[in-house]
Amino acid sequence: MPAAVITAENLVKKYQDFAAVDDISFEVQPGEAFGLLGPNGAGKSTTMRMVGAVSTRTSGALNVLGLDPDRYGPEIRAQLGVVPQSDNLDMELRARENLIVYGRYFGLPSRQVAARADELMAFAQLEDKVKAKVDDLSGGMKRRLTIARALINDPRLLLLDEPTTGLDPQARHILWDRLFRLKEQGTTLLLTTHYMDEAEQLCDRLVVIDKGAIMAEGSPASLIRRYSSREVLEVRFGSDRNAAASARLEGIGDRVEVLPDRILLYSDNGEAALVRITELGLRPITSLVRRSSLEDVFLRLTGRSLIE
Amino acid sequence: MTGTLVEASARRDRPLGSLYAGNARSVMSRGWRATRSTNWLVVVSGLFEPVFYLLSMGLGLGALVGTVDGPGGTEISYAAFIAPALLAVAAMNGAIYDSTWNVFFKMRFSKLYDGMLATSLGPLDVALGEISLALLRGALYATGFMLVMQVLGLNLSWWALLAFPAVVLIAFGFASFGMAVTSYMKTFQQMDWINFLLLPMFLFSATFYPLSVYPPVIQTLIQCLPLWHGVELVRSLTTGAVDVGLLWHVLYYLVMIAVGLVFTTRRLRALFLD
Ligand SMILES: Nc1ncnc2c1ncn2[C@@H]1O[C@H](COP(=O)(O)OP(=O)(O)O)[C@@H](O)[C@H]1O
Ligand SMILES: [Mg+2]
């Protein structure tokens, strides 16, 4: 088996007394798309910064591309592509210039950078925005440009911190499609997200993290199998009646979760569960049967929703 | 894994370790490209400012003042007395513009350095690159002003040729020190303090009259300030009153450059590579 691209063992990052990352361990293999799924403040960006060799760890061991980031920062960064959580494109430069100048920061020769910039503008579907000012690009375009910029040095590992947060659905789909391409080409991806659909679509394997600690690890499908039922029945009785109704639902399905606006019933057969509810004489205002998702896994592990 | 072994040994060849990748020139060339979107009126106005001072005070006021004692004790025109001081000020101002407000904006708002330091660049590359750009602006203003001095006949000696490297040194000193100070600033109010301190330094550093008008205590105080050293150095060169003592001024600036570089680099590392 080839050596892991990232190995983190008991990794800790403290700010004063507060542990933003609290003893996490994971491994990412070459060619894998690995995700850190967790809510805001879980410690995802802090982990990304340590892997990206721009933040030193408090304790634990970390190995990125065979090197220790605390000692070989420049060597590691030379082989990484980084898409930070908030865009930091160079506003004083035009779109394509952003790629050229960034490539030069890596000490790459001008000619090579220029050729690569043209390829990447095409990859990011920004051919007609070559001379555009960064300010004039839409949010999705800026994100694509940032990804193109991260690829200018032909990185062995691409770090994506919340790649689609804040984008509209259409822009997200375009971006996912680009990231799929990269996956198909065998680029190793480490990405963070608090969208479970994004994690399900893009990640081969992921860790669920909350308050700096790992709650579970596995492929999206295996996590759902392990921590949730096959289907979920969502019923609404109206906000003031949900709690009362839930007391009578015990025993139907594997588990009941009461959220402020609805009740989730975990069961391998959602339709059958719905029939039993009506047999009890309960009349939900709305009902919906769906497949379990990572959202349910997160709820099960932490008792909270991913997006609050 | 042979690739990583090669890189690991390459690191040992780098005397400054992770601080310097030897690629400050990429930071400079970024700056050149970015100037295309800057406001050129602001840049050009900086070129004219010292010329206006020279014309109004040197020629206007100079008509009343007549001649003054130059550095070597020889009588020189008032314009020839203040022109070298304004030359040093031009170098200072050019360097300060870029290394204070522009750096503050890049550091706190545009996140430019976050991006740079996520590449293989080190903090010293960023510091050197940005400081060199600021230095060039200072040198540009100073060169423009030197031409005006030449046209007006205010370069009194061939030594004046050495004023050119001298203003580059002065600009380097202020750029380096300016960026270091700016890197510790957090608010606009703190930034305003820089301007607030620069104005009296400009007025009182033996710019418009000799240091001898002050009582000894004040004289000593002013001799601690960087601009006074710049003014003295340049004035001695353009008037031809050169002696070995000038090397003290050079040394002052070399220290200023070194201190500025060290603190800027440390601060960039603390801020962006925590
Ligand atoms: N530089 C810092 N100083 C102090 N606390 C920080 C710093 N960076 C992050 N934190 C804290 O660490 C926690 C994790 O932050 P972060 O890694 O950004 O979370 P996420 O990316 O998962 O939203 C948060 O509570 C945040 O406030
Ligand atoms: Mg984050």
From TrEMBL, chain A:
Keywords: Antibiotic resistance, ATP-binding, Cell membrane, Membrane, Nucleotide-binding, Translocase, Transport. The keyword Nucleotide-binding applies. It is a peripheral membrane protein. SUPFAM superfamilies: P-loop containing nucleoside triphosphate hydrolases. It is found in: Cell membrane. GO terms for biological process: response to antibiotic. One of its GO terms (molecular function) is ATP hydrolysis activity. One of its GO terms (cellular component) is plasma membrane. Gene3D superfamilies: P-loop containing nucleotide triphosphate hydrolases (3.40.50.300). Its main location: membrane. It holds the Pfam family ABC_tran. Residues 6-236 form the ABC transporter domain. SMART domains: AAA (SM00382). Belongs to the ABC transporter superfamily. This is Lipooligosaccharide transport system ATP-binding protein. It comes from Mycetocola miduiensis. The lineage of its organism: Bacteria, Bacillati, Actinomycetota, Actinomycetes, Micrococcales.
From TrEMBL, chain B:
Residues 41-271 form the ABC transmembrane type-2 domain. It is a multi-pass membrane protein. The chain crosses the membrane at residues 40-64, 76-96, 117-136, 156-181, 193-211, 246-264. Keywords: Antibiotic resistance, Cell membrane, Membrane, Transmembrane, Transmembrane helix, Transport. InterPro entries: ABC2_TM (IPR013525), ABC2_TM_bact-type (IPR047817), ABC_2_transport (IPR000412), Nod_factor_ABC_transporter (IPR051784). PROSITE patterns: ABC_TM2. GO terms for biological process: response to antibiotic. One of its GO terms (molecular function) is ABC-type transporter activity. Signal peptide: none annotated. It is found in: Cell membrane; Membrane. The keyword Glycosyltransferase does not apply. GO terms for cellular component: ATP-binding cassette (ABC) transporter complex. Belongs to the ABC-2 integral membrane protein family. PANTHER family: NODULATION PROTEIN J. This is Transport permease protein. It comes from Mycetocola miduiensis.
